[in-house]
DNA sequence: AGCTCCATCTAATCACTGTTTAGATGAGGA
DNA sequence: TCCTCATCTAAACAGTGATTAGATGGAGCT
């Protein structure tokens, strides 16, 4: 009846409007301040101003909703990582690999909930999202390429195998990010001290893979 | 009224019996074959043969139940890691650190669901369990000690800082375990190929921290 | 303009969930 | 024997994700 009577939302058009985007951005708001585990589709619907069943017209399930959120987030993560690499520039391949890791880590620590959604594969349907799989591949492929070049240029310690190195790099960065997100570092609450410690650890890790020629 | 009429359980005494242990073992059975996310207290109660409210007499919440399960699991994880270290023996401190990691990893890959429960701090109340905190400390303290000794014996590359190394080791092993548990290695389903790849990666990681003197 | 069509949304309902409460029950100690 | 008290049941509450039939109203055609 009334023209519009509530909601802190900027725009006032529902009943017919852009529900999909409204749902996505409201989901982001909720999970960022309440955590993913406290996201309820019904509460979400209420916040957006629609009936409890409305979201299911656009997303087959709660998992599908979160998968859509994850796709957006994964794009930003990939961008952050690859832009960090581009930012360092230079010829040193291992420094570029390190930069990817630093960019990845920084993003994960800055957006812990989103990182959780992306990486936990029980909240989303990762396999059926070609977008998510593609982004994942993109980072890994980039690392492969850089490491192969590093090997060819003798930057990499000769005894190291590339497949193993790629796995190690992924695990190392993922481990740091996950430990932080999973609450294994209760001593540092702000996203500042982690940045220092993880930065140093990652640098040392990468330097440990270099050929012993140079100092 | 019948004496006993159902249940695959070995013993038949409830109404008065050892409900606590029955609940714990049934929980383990369920989460191992269905996953933690599909554990329902009501289904658990039905399986054990009690009313839906009964479990709450012994565990304040579902979280408390899972915390109890996590305590048992954490004890086994710690044992596995420290026994692996004892098994290698020898003087080489870094090999012992590696053994801890290998034992930890092997246990995690063999018991993925339990590892998930232990490490995800949103399913359990880690902070309020002194048992969980103590076990966690035990492994870390052991690593600290070994690494300090390694440093004193010049086994460790001199430019490395111990705090940073401990963090790196934890993150590396945790990352490998978590990636496997989180489904980042869909190409290896059986717990065999991971064992090979992660073993090799961990070994290379540890060797990368050694002093460059020896070959 | 009117009208029809169809995506969109509502209302109601289903089968669940975790958790709380008052009260029944029955084993162990006096 | 009876009394006590931990243990368990029954019932209810408030919430969840998801499905369905039907209302609604804007877009596009005649």
Descriptive account of the structure:
- The structure is a homodimer of 215-residue chains.
- Chain A is mainly α.
- Chain A folds into two domains: 40 residues, Orthogonal Bundle (Arc Repressor Mutant, subunit A); 139 residues, Tetracycline Repressor, domain 2 (Orthogonal Bundle).
- Chain A contains nine helices and no strands.
- The longest helix of chain A has 27 residues.
- Chain A starts with 18 loop residues before the first helix and ends in an 8-residue tail after the last helix.
- In chain A, 36% of the residues are buried.
- The N terminus of chain A is likely disordered.
- At the A-B interface, helix 8 and helix 9 of A face helix 8 and helix 9 of B.
- The structure holds a DNA duplex (30 and 30 nucleotides).
Topology:
The structure is a homodimer of 215-residue chains.
Chain A: H1 19-34, H2 41-48, H3 55-58, H4 62-88, H5 93-110, H6 112-119, H7 130-152, H8 162-181, H9 193-207
Helix pairs in contact in A: 1-2, 4-5, 4-6, 4-7, 5-6, 5-7, 5-8, 5-9, 6-8, 7-8, 8-9
Chain A binds a DNA duplex (30 and 30 nucleotides) through residues 14-16, 19, 40-42, 50-54, 56-58, 60-62.
């Amino acid at each position: 009846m009334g023209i519009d009577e509530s909601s802190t939302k900027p725009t006032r058009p529902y009943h017919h409007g852009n529900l999909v985007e409204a749902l996505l951005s409201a989901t982001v708001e909720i999970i960022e301040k309440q955590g993913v585990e406290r996201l309820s589709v019904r509460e979400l619907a209420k916040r957006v101003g629609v009936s409890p069943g409305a979201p299911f017209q656009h997303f087959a399930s709660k998992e599908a909703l979160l998968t859509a959120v994850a796709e957006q987030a994964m794009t930003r993560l990939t961008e952050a990582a690859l832009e960090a690499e581009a930012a360092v520039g230079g010829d040193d391949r291992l420094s570029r690999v390190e930069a990817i890791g630093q960019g990845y880590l920084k993003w994960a620590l800055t957006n812990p909930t989103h990182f959780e959604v992306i990486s936990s594969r029980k909240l989303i349907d990762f396999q059926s999202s070609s977008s998510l799989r593609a982004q994942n591949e993109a980072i890994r492929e980039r690392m492969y390429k850089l490491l192969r070049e590093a090997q060819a240029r003798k930057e990499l310690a000769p005894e190291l195998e590339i497949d193993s190195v790629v796995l190690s790099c992924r695990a190392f960065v993922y481990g740091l990010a996950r430990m932080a997100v999973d609450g294994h570092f209760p001593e540092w609450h702000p996203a500042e001290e982690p940045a220092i410690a993880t930065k140093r650890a990652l640098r040392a890790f990468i330097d440990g893979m270099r050929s012993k020629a140079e100092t």
